[in-house]
Specification:
The chain has ten helices and 13 strands. The protein has helices at residues 20-29, 42-50, 92-100, 137-155, 176-180, 199-211, 228-239, 249-255, 258-264, 285-295, and strands at 12-16, 35-39, 54-57, 75-80, 108-114, 125-126, 159-165, 167-169, 185-186, 196-198, 216-219, 246-247, 269-270. It has a domain at 12-171 and 196-223 and 271-283: NAD(P)-binding Rossmann-like Domain (Rossmann fold), CATH 3.40.50.720. It starts with 11 loop residues before the first strand and ends with a helix. A seven-stranded parallel beta sheet has the order 3-2-1-4-5-7-11, with helices on both faces. A two-stranded parallel sheet has the order 6-13. By secondary structure, the protein is of the alpha/beta class.
């Protein structure tokens, strides 16, 4: 399999999906060479262009799979950040993207997946050797996407990296509004450990995956699993806000959103036997929250 390393300034990078993580990644990657961001809406395209990030609007849920994407000349790397569509157990959005790459042969493709593919282990640890056991369709779609990426790349002798990502926090991604509204959190004794990573550490992992001659699956985590209540209370303390009220599981089922309840029903402790190869030293929650608040001017 080919090495995808190297830092040639002329090597272009295609970012499929350019939201919260993608914009920060694009800014960093621009220091190394051209970037093209593929987004769904024209408004997003114009916003990126206004800050110097080349962008193209394309809806991967519409049109023919045979509509080729006009990839940048000398395309070196692809980072796929777009989520799957909201239904089904397959990621047909990714399938259309790979079809539209046509004859492009990047040196490396990085796919951002989720640690949700491991399902619920009742708080037991999982690493890259653990079997996937998704309980929800949203995680089944991610397992399908990982399989498609590996098969597509291996058939073309392209290096591939799957980054399994836990909850992402960072500037403007902290529960400050919920704290100000006094919304409750599930008490620690009723919830398992949560796994997180600060957005700038995630961006650093993406860059390392592009530059280092690595392949396969990597779990990402800050190495400090703690309950949602503990994390939210920590945010409150550092932001100078009142700690959130805590409720038991019975009350949570009455007042919390279905999406949040679905997240809380799964518990696992994410570890990694491979992430050291990425050369990362992720921030612990205290440092990550402080860095996020500073960037927000708080």
């Amino acid at each position: 399999m080919e090495n995808g390393g190297g830092k040639d300034a002329n090597q272009s990078c295609l970012l499929a999906g350019c939201g919260y993580v993608g914009v920060r990644l694009a800014r960093r990657r621009l220091e190394r060479g051209p970037v093209l961001a593929l987004v769904r809406r024209q408004a997003s395209c114009e916003a990126l262009t206004s800050e110097g990030i080349a962008a193209l609007a394309m809806d991967l849920d519409e049109g023919s799979q045979q509509d080729a994407l006009d990839v940048p000349p000398g395309l070196h790397a692809v980072v796929y950040l777009a989520p799957p569509a909201a239904r089904g157990t397959e990621d047909l959005r990714l399938a259309r993207f790979l079809e539209r790459l046509g004859g492009a042969r990047p040196a490396v493709l990085v796919y951002l997946s989720t640690t949700g593919v491991y399902g619920d282990t009742d708080g037991a640890p999982v690493d890259e050797q653990s079997p996937v056991a998704p309980r929800e369709d949203r995680s089944r779609r991610r397992v399908d996407a990982e399989r498609r990426v590996a098969q597509w790349c291996e058939a073309r002798r392209i290096r591939w990296v799957v980054l399994r990502v836990p909850a992402i926090y960072g500037p403007h991604r902290l529960p400050l509004d919920r704290l100000r509204l006094g919304e409750p959190v599930l008490r620690p004794e009723d919830s398992g450990p949560g796994n997180r990573i600060q957005v700038d550490d995630l961006v650093a992992a993406c860059l390392a995956a592009l530059d280092r001659p690595l392949s396969g699956v990597f779990n990402l985590t800050d190495g400090h699993p703690e309950s949602m209540a503990a994390f939210t209370t920590r945010v409150a303390r550092l932001a100078g806000l009142p700690a959130p009220p805590q409720i038991d599981w019975a009350e949570a089922q009455r007042v919390l959103s279905p999406g949040l309840l679905g997240f809380l029903r799964e518990s696992r402790r994410v570890t990694s036997c491979r992430s050291q190869a990425l050369g990362l030293s992720p921030m612990d929650p205290e440092a990550g929250i402080r860095a996020s608040l500073r960037e927000m001017g708080l």
